[in-house]
Design goal:
Chain lengths: 117, 113
């Protein structure tokens, strides 16, 4: 049973560029959440996708956008990269909304380390 | 405005002894709490959770205690093992766990052989 997978593992971009990160949820999960973890901090919630729609959003600018596909996988896009966007980007999956077996625990992938120079 | 606080950045214990990690929260809407363990260069690994309708949940060597009146929870690890050395994050959610997770800054646990 595959857990949450993310790609790429590492990424180096230049300020002003755009980046796309990808996530496949754990089998049986239909909800994907994205988090940003800066050095020495806990993960910060960016947004959550369910049924291909953004359901919740954290305090991040519109430069951060996402998408969920019919197979429940998801993308995180960041435009006009800033040096401060350098962080570990984590994807988490869960199944909190439907079905007889709800899974509220969010399971995390290994993350994508983004460095903006 | 930090809604979930882990006031101890680090904790060091001897192998075989008890490790107690603490967490405080301020938002009374939180009703689901989780602990995660994180090794360097890996994503957080789910350890144990507790709903606000309970005051204790146990899973093997890990026990989480919730004191709603004090808005405080703790994670007990007994006995501690060197492999438990990692950063531990406390997280909270509202609406039974379907809402976003709000994390503390983490506590680095070191278990000495």
């Amino acid at each position: 049973d595959a857990g949450v997978t993310q790609s790429p593992t590492h990424l180096i971009k230049t300020r002003g560029q755009q980046v796309t990160l990808r996530c496949s949820p754990k089998s049986g999960h239909d909800t994907v959440s994205w988090y940003q973890q800066a050095l020495g901090q806990g993960p910060q919630f960016i947004f959550q996708y369910y049924e291909e729609e953004e359901r919740q959003r954290g305090n991040f600018p519109d430069r951060f956008s996402g998408h969920q596909f019919p197979n429940y996988s998801s993308e995180l896009n960041v435009n006009a990269l800033l040096l401060g966007d350098s962080a570990l980007y984590l994807c988490a999956s869960s199944n909190p909304y439907r079905g007889s077996f709800k899974d509220y625990e969010q399971y995390f992938g290994p993350g994508t380390r983004l460095t903006v120079t | 405005d930090q809604q979930v606080k882990q006031n101890s950045p680090s904790l060091s214990v001897q192998e075989g002894r008890i490790s107690i990690l603490n967490c405080d929260y301020t938002n009374s809407m939180f009703d689901y709490f989780l602990w995660y363990k994180k090794y360097p260069a890996e994503g957080p690994t789910f350890l144990i959770s507790i709903s606000s309708i309970k005051d204790k949940n146990e899973d093997g060597r890990f026990t989480v205690f919730l004191n709603k009146s004090a808005k405080h929870l703790s994670l007990h690890i007994v006995p501690s093992q060197p492999g438990d050395s990692a950063v531990y994050f406390c997280a909270a959610s509202a609406k039974g766990g379907s809402e976003k997770l709000v994390f503390g800054k983490g506590t680095k646990l070191t278990v000495n052989p």
